[in-house]
Amino acid sequence: MEQSQQRAGAGGQDAPAPRDGEDGRSGTALELLVHGVGGTTPAEMLDDPRTVRVTGDHIAAVFRRAEDADAESRPEDYRGRPVPEAYVWCNLTSGNGTRALWLLLLPFMVVNLAHWMRPSARGRTRTVRLYGLLVRLAGLTLTVLLVAGACEVALDLVAWQCAGTRACAERHSWLGFLSPVMSDGGWWSTPGRRLALAAAVPAALAGLLWYLSLRTWRAYESQQPMDREDGPGDGQGAAPADGHAGAPEEGRGTVPGEDPAHTALGRPGFWYGRRLVARLRAAHTAAALLTVAAAVGAPAARFDRRPGGPALLDTLGWLLMAALAAGAVVVVAVVCRRGRSERHLDRELDRRLVRHLPLVALALFVLALLYGGWSRPGWSSAGRLPGDMTFGGIVLVQGLLVVALAVVAHLLHRSRPDARAAIRGLGGPAVAMLACALGGVMSGGVAQRVSDWLDGTGTSIDGPPVLLTWQASVIPPLLVVVLLLCAALARHTWRLARAERDDIESDHPGEAGDPGRTRRIALTRALATLTDRAPLLVAIVSATTLLLGAGALVGALTTDRAPADAARGTYAVVHGAAETAQALGSWLIGLGFILFVTWGRRAYKDASARRTIGILWDVGTFWPRAAHPFAPPCYAERAVPDLTWRMATWTRATGGRLVISGHSQGSVLAASAAWQLEPSARKRVALLTYGSPLERLYGRWFPAHFGPAALGSLHEEVDCWRNLYRTTDPIGGPMRLPGDPGPDVDRAPLKDPLTYGRTELHPLPAPILGHSDYQADPAFAEERRRLLARLRPDVPGPRQTGRAPSVPAADGGTTGNC
Q1: How many CA atoms lie within 13 A of 740 on its CB side?
Q2: Does the model's pTM come out above 0.90?
Q3: Which of 108, 433, 721, 808 has the fewest CB atoms below 10 angstroms from its CB?
């Protein structure tokens, strides 16, 4: 069914573009529809139950109505209307039940977002590189934290404490063969062999993460974008639109010190992160295996260093620890390496590094198992597994990285201030802090629940490290802060809704009033403004989390006791508060973990729940994996090249006349694909966005890539751009382009609902649409008609500063500004 693709590609990459009227097809126009979050069906997008796939596969494809399948061969039938096409990409994010497992990778996804939240910079080359380095290091600590949490459960709680304690082992008979008492000194009952056997659990977790990253890497990062040297276009080669030569750059992102008006999203290699992800995957896999090897080998080496211990094992222990330390240094060095250039498709791969680094780490892991499992008479397990302060070290490093990241982000923001940037340029550090907190809660929560399950009486084993108990105890105060913020936002929303009531009836003059309907519309408008309050909420929660986390770390280090025990002997109020926080925090962690697992299980079985989770992934996985290779894959590395190829082949085969129409997240994909086009092809494309978060969300949270200068340059480079939004829409908003960029982009806010009360045309109350169904508004068809009328087969329409002159429309009207 790939008729359209074959015809559009008939010109080939080496064939010249057809002249106007040469093949009779230059007058045909195309409207390429791109849906938003949550996805939809081709039938719904094209308003026809009979659709055919013209190009693509079962994951992402372009569809047409059955009657339009051969539109290129009948251009005379489309003189007054465009050929509608629908690009459906929802299966990239919510295609099957296994995507629910990606919830476990949530901290990795969040820290990857922090990488892209860098503020715009001017002349800060080293500072930009330092920002990317700090985020990658924070991502590495999350991998170590997750694996350390698995080691805490499997090695410390199960193999060391429970199997080594008679009361706990008797309660769990499946541990009998590991217990020295119940197995009567069996072969597996020695501490080292118990640890070596339990190490299979965190090692399997590391292998699973490696496999998932490799599989998605082959499916997503291996999708090559259109190369401007050999793809459809105007033959301008691989030089980017800004005319700069290919210079080295930091990781992923804008070239340090370059003109920020030319966003990095327009570079040929931006959506091709194959080399970088492979290198990071090797480093993080090695870090995971080295963490497990250290958890097995360090207790044995500590026992061998006792006075009178065997000299050979002591020497081997020192050599093993030195090898593990050297491996850790190599891993950090690989993570700190600068990334590849995005000015061309970097098809190279660091094959030796990608292959050898995980293999060396695996070899050290096996050696640690052999060393730890060696027979050591007199060695017994008591208390917690040595090395439980590992969590304290990880938390300390994460806190220092977040603080350093905040300093760097502040310096970058000062070099090019942006009043609309979220949290004054500190959005990245705030989100990185939340990623670290999520990782700590997930790993600590599992350890707390497993400890409670193993030790029903709470007296047989010591339980998880003290720091994890302190971290659980600070959750109730954090929730109090969140509830107070929610109450303040609710009060602000209620006041705003009351103020909106006076404006609603004036927006619908001549219609009968309805107090109940007025309240509903006013509340919808007020609730839509909560999106703009999100930076304040994130800033306060992140700062509170940092302060409470620092307090938990200090409390654990100074007292080495749980909060309730540390507060014993103080004032009764203090002791009672500590006991309450400790008990409530443990309960909340358990409840959250249960809800987390239940939600994931429901999403696996329930298609509607799976679609809801897919919406979260639509927003969170737009960006390439630049900071963490185990994050969920970037669907845009498939979707953006798909759209770019479709637009490039159409403009080449027909001479132009293309309107790409994007709703919500689809508008972000549409803009990203337009940036990827050759400048001459970009001039033949018009952009229609509606319900778009381009400025309201992406421009504020990702200013280096979607800031005012970048959006302004896109407006200047496409033939025309029109944007529709509603005041009731919590996601979409105006573009707010700076200065005087020429024809207006934003149309005045659309009425919602279309009619306030009952009218002759609408006898039943019209619904409040909010973020959905923009096509139901007559303004949508009007703007689409104007854009198509402006686009001519020969040359783009004139662009002038201020209000553009009227251009005759297809029906004899005028096109207005655009």
Answers
A1: 5
A2: no
A3: 808
